[in-house]
Amino acid sequence: MARLTAPLAMMAGAALLLAGCATAPDAGGESSASEYCARMVTNSGGLEDRSFNQSSWEGLQQASAQYDIDVNAIVSTSETDLAPNVAQAVDTGCQFILTVGWELADATIAEAEANPDVHFAIVDEQVDGANIKPIVFDTAQAAFLAGYLAAGVTQTGIVATFGGGNQPPVTLFMDGFVDGVAEYNTAHGTSVRALGWDKDAQDGTFTGDFEDIAKGKSFTQGFIDQGADVILPVAGQVGEGAAAAASENTGVSIIWVDNDGYETLPAEFRPLVLTSVLKNMEDAVVKIVGDDIAGDFDNAPFVGTLENGGVEIAPFHDRASLVSPELAAEVDGIRQGIIDGDIVVSSPSTPE
Fold it and tell me: Positive or negative, the Cα torsion across 266, 268, 269, 273?
C-alpha cells in the first residue's frame, strides 16, 4: 500500500502551540480554508513515537499542504498534560481539534460538550458525541494476514506477541494475529504456537506502558528464550526494545504496527522487519479535515478496513527472501477473502 510520509524535519518546533487562530464558526457553518486552523493533541507517547501520534501528525501536515491551512501540535509528556492540553487547543479558537489515543477520550468528551461549535476527531478510540468523529481501524483484519505470514515463515514453530496495555486498540491486533496463526495451522496441518495472548481469556503479556524500551527488550528476550522467532509488539515506542532484542539473536524477525517500521525505525533495525500492520491514518485525517472545511463534518465513525484501504500489511522489504511465492499468494488470497466477506475476522474489540 502506498504511503506518503512527511519529512521528519517538518516536525521541528511543532511541540509548541502557536497563537493567532481564527474564531470558530457557527455550528454547521462553512469556513474558508484561509480562515481555518486545526490543532492536534498527542497522548503521552509524544510526537515522534513511530506510531499513531507521528502518523496522525503527518496526516495533519498533509492536510495543511493540501488545503493551505494553519496546523500545529501540542505534545503531552505525561498523563497530567492531557486534559490541560485539550483545553489549550480549544482556547486557540481553531475549528478542528484532533486528539490521539484512548488516554484523551475523557478530555475530548468534556471539551466537546463544553464547546459544541468546535469539531473534534479522536484517533483509536470510539466515543459518542455530536461533534466528535472517531477515527478507528479494524487492525485485526491486517493482523490476521501478519499472523498467517508469521506462521508461514517461522523456523521454530513458535511466534509471539505482547502489548503495552490491555486496551481494545491493542488487543485488536493481538486477536487478529493469533487467529491468523490458527488459520495457517488449519490450512497446513501444522501446530505453530502463538505466545503472549489468549484470545478466549482476553488476557496475555503486557508491559504496562508504551514508552519503556528496556521492558520491550526484556519481554522479547523472554519470548526468544522460549523459542519464538517472529515477534509482534503492540506497544508504541516499547516495540523498539523488541527490535533491539531481535538484533542480538540470529534469525529473529519483528512485525511492526501502525506505520511501516522499515521506514520509521532506526536503520540498524529495519532489516529485521518482516512486515508491518498498517493504519492509514494520514489519508483518514486529510479526508476528515477536508470534509470539515467543506461543511460536511459528521460524527459517524471512520472505520479503516482492508476493503477501504484503511488497514494493510507493508511490503516484506529485506525479509522478502523468507516469504515463498506460494506463501505470498496465500496471503493475497486471504486478503481478498476478507474483503469479499468469505473470511470473517472477529474480535471483541472490533470497531463498528
Answer: positive
Rounded-to-integer distance, Cα 84 and Cα 107, Å: 8
Residue 29: pLDDT over 90: no
The pTM score is 0.84
Closest CA to 169 of 195, 136, 144: 136
Cell of 160: 509471539
CA geometry: angle at 56 spanning 54 and 61, to 5°? 95
339 three-state secondary structure: helix
Q: Is the dihedral of CA 169, 175, 178, 184 positive or negative?
A: negative
- Asked if residue 207 lies in contact with residue 164, where contact means CB atoms within 8 angstroms, the answer is yes
Could you tell me which residues come within 8 angstroms of residue 247 by beta carbon, excluding any fewer than 6 positions away?
A: 268, 269, 272
Class of domain 139-279+316-340: alpha beta
Neighbours of 247 (CB within 10 A): 16
Shared fold status for 8-137+281-304 and 139-279+316-340? yes
Helix axes 82-91, 105-114, angle to 10 degrees: 30
| Cβ count near 138 (within 10 Å) | 26
Cβ atoms of residues 239 and 217 within 8 Å: no
Would strands 203-204 and 197-198 be described as parallel, antiparallel, or unpaired?
antiparallel
Q: Strands, DSSP E only, in the chain?
A: 37-41, 70-74, 96-100, 119-123, 132-137, 158-163, 193-195, 197-198, 203-204, 230-234, 253-258, 273-279, 302-304, 311-313
pLDDT band at 34 (very low <50, low <70, confident <90, very high): low
- For residues 243 and 265, is the Cβ–Cβ distance under 8 A? yes
8-137+281-304: CATH number: 3.40.50.2300
Structure confidence at residue 77 (pLDDT): 87
* 322 alpha-carbon distance from chain centroid: 25
Q: What pLDDT, in 10s, does the model give residues 249-294? A: 999 999 999 999 999 999 999 999 999 999 999 999 999 999 999 9
Instruction: List the one residue out of 344, 274, 275 whose CA is nearest residue 306.
Output: 344
Q: Where are the domains of the chain?
A: 8-137+281-304, 139-279+316-340
pLDDT of 28 strictly over 90: no
